[in-house]
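Methods, example record. To illustrate the input and output format used throughout this study, we show the complete record for Casein kinase II subunit beta. The sequence lines were provided to the predictor; the line carrying structure tokens was produced by it.
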Amino acid sequence: MSSGSEDSEVDGWIRWHCGHEGNEFLCEVDRAYIEDGFNLYGLRAAVPHGNFQDCLDIILDKIEVEEFENINYMNMLAGQLYGLIHARFIVTSHGLSVMHSKYRQCDFGCCPRVLCGNQSVVPIGSSMDLNHDSVCIFCPKCGEVYSAGRNPLCSSRALDGAYFGPTFAHLFFMTYSHEVPQEPPQRYVPRVFGFRVNSLSESIAHLSRGREEATTPSSGAAGEAVASTEGGAETRRAAGRPIRTLARTTTRHQDSVAVVPDRQSTRNPAIQRAGMATSSTASGKEHGDQGTSKDGARGSQGGDGGSGKLESAKRGSIASTGGTGGGLSLRTKRQRTSDTPVSGSTKQ
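The corresponding predicted structure is encoded as:
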């Protein structure tokens, strides 16, 4: 920088730096934005050897660069600091408006792809760190990123990509959505002697695979996840890696009951009637056993303990033969006992 020039003295360091050859992509940051210390938070460590305040004073024209011994070195440090401030400024509302004016004037150049038809582009960087990569250009029509050196209308290929960052290009078209081309990008069709090359040909098969992978959900953004349930455990795939989480134990009881078939509805009517008869007989026996126990208790409480026990035993034998009236009476049992033949020892 030659501070003795009249333009430099009138316009200041910011305008001189942005008008320098190779800095066409840069816009003029407002002095009020630079003077606000909140906007400069974290940038002090980016300037080596404690020259942050000196570089800031050079940008704000508080001191002349000729006051330093190494003028070129201080200009380089001031340019790096201004570039980092520039990356923060262009994502603000006012910064986006300034860059939109440059976009409409095609200050960033056109897409080098022939089928895009000289579509206007915007600058983009791959990182927010210095000396990581040089500035590139992003085409909104084909969605591809190209090196700025391929554009013959651009001489800003020496700019650092951190002066723009990876956010600005996409935030720009989100803010000015009317600048996004509505027509889909035109695809190049390879032909041999006028005939279209088969997509399964080895010469272009990799192009088809690349397009299919770009359209599959698994190759989308890292924020997208595909969830599936296997054996009660939830498995998520994010960015191609399965992440197994804890199993879900919130199984409801009614769901398991609903899948069990109703056995009563599949039985034969005859079997059902037989089952009902069996259940009624079993209930009769149960009632009979209860009556026996009650009568036995009453007999044991009577005056004659022996007669009470005998009467209880008789009633218990009657109830045990059938609670529903199907058993034999005590008189019938006595008759059968009298009809029983006497043993041989008795006859003698």
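Annotations derived from this record:
The domain at 6-89 is CATH 1.10.1820.10 (protein kinase ck2 holoenzyme, chain C, domain 1).
The CA atoms of residues 76 and 346 lie 140 Å apart.
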